[in-house]
Every structure is written in C-alpha cells, then in structure tokens.
Amino acid sequence: MAEFSRYDIYVLLNQPKPLWLSHIDLSGMDLRGVALNGATLIGANLQNVDLRGAIMIDANLGGANLHGAKMVGADLRRANMRGTDLRKANLREANLAEADLSDADLSEANLIDSNLGATDLTNANLTGADLSGTNATDHRLTRAKSLVGTTFPDGTKRE
Predict the structure, then answer these.
(1) From the CA atom positions of the chain, what is the Rg in Å?
(2) Which residue has the higher pLDDT, 107 or 6?
C-alpha cells in the first residue's frame, strides 16, 4: 500500500478525474462528499473511511477493503464492487443501482433504505445484513451465498 500525507491526499483528490488510486491506503480518512466518479480503487484500503455523501458513480472498487466504512447516502451507481470487503459498513440510503456486488462480503452491513435496483448480489455474503426498506428483489437475493440472519426488505429476518 502506498502511504501519503494528508496534504498529498488533498492534492491527489483534487486532480482531474477519473483517478487511478489502486492499492492506496486511505484507511480512517474523512472523505465526506468527495467526488470519485470513474475512479479506480482496486485493492485500496478504505477501512473505517468516512465516505458519507460521496459520489462514486462508475468507480472500480474491486477487492477493496471497506470494512466499517461510513457510506451513508453515497452514490455508487454502476460501481464495480466485486469481491469488496464491506463487513459492518454503513450503506444506509446509498444508491447502489446496477452495482456489481458479486462475491462481496456484506456481513452485518447496514443497507437500510438503500437503492439496490438491478444490483448483482451473486455469491455475496449477506450474513446479518439489514436490507430493511430496500428494493432488492427475491430473485437477486436468492443468488447470494449466505442469507443467515439477514433482515429482508419487508422487515422479516431469516434465522
């Protein structure tokens, strides 16, 4: 992982877009409202990062570590999040329409009121995830690897 000072990160994030930030370590950073449309963050360490309200349309986050990330209200439409670690991430009211979450780990993630329209959940781990109020369809949910302890869009919980 590359290491940058806060100033380096500020300069980097204010460069012309899209950005190539693969394997960067931004863990614990406050990146509220950042615009990373089309950015490449493959394998990046974004553990516990604050991305509330971030705009990351068409971003490539494949294999990134977003464990415990705060992504309330983030716009992740069409984002590639294949194999991403989203354990305990707060994605409340996030827009994940048409995102690729196949093979992602969403264990204990908060997805309350998120837009999951046409989201690919093939082999995703949804153990203990809260999908209350989402628009996730049954045929997409049945493709998940695990639904143990998951709270479904209608509020029912699978044991």
Answers:
(1) 15
(2) 107
Residue type, 134: T
For residue 92, the SS3 value is coil
14 contact partners, CB below 8 Å, separation of at least 6: none
- What is the model's pTM? 0.94
Overall size of the chain counted in residues = 159
First to last CA, the chain: 39
Backbone angles phi, psi at 141, to 5 degrees: -65, -35
Q: What angle do CA 30, 56, 40 make, to 5 degrees?
A: 95
- Supply the pLDDT for residue 16: 80
Name the β-bridge partners of 20.
Answer: 40
CA atoms within 13 A on the CB side of 66: 32
**Chain centroid to CA 92:** 11
Which residue in 25, 111, 156, 92 sits closest to 124, CA to CA? 111
